[in-house]
Amino acid sequence: MSSLNSENCSNSVSPLINFYYGRGRTIPSCIYREGYTLDEILTWSLDKLEHEHDYIQWLFPLTERSAFNPKAPILTDQQINLFMNDEKLIENLSKSFKLMMGFYGFCCDDSQDLICIKKSVDHDEKVSKWLRKNNHNYLRITRILKSLKILGLSNYSEAFLGALNDLYLNHSETISDRTYRFWVEAVNDGSKA
Q: Which residue range forms the structural domain that includes residue 59?
């Protein structure tokens, strides 16, 4: 894998790539505030991660427009190729994933070839804050799974689905079969989620 020299990247690089290199901001969905840098988002509290709604499309972009944030980037083939081949982008995507794992009550160990997602020590407390029927986090999880697959981190997506499978089995009264099917489809065929 190669890493683009950030000093050689011109301003013509897309806002998404600039954001993921740590040199740009999200384009806010509201005109009354500034966008966020990746470094700012990576330091957010759990409450801020829950209550802000226009960052997740930047952390985990897709190839189709977001119905909830029309100003969010739409992945191009060129951007997908960059993510798959640039160490800095892969590293920052991994940081974004680990941030959200912490939010959902999991931790990610990617120090070996095998990605391991396991419950964090405060798993039950964190899960109790978002695991409710028809919660918007279910859509976020689908986006995360699908984006990781598209951007070449299928192993992370598959490991996360394994952890979600256990969550679904233990909370099937809260997580609908339909939601779980969306998660499975996002991992097994990212184009269908």
A: 15-188
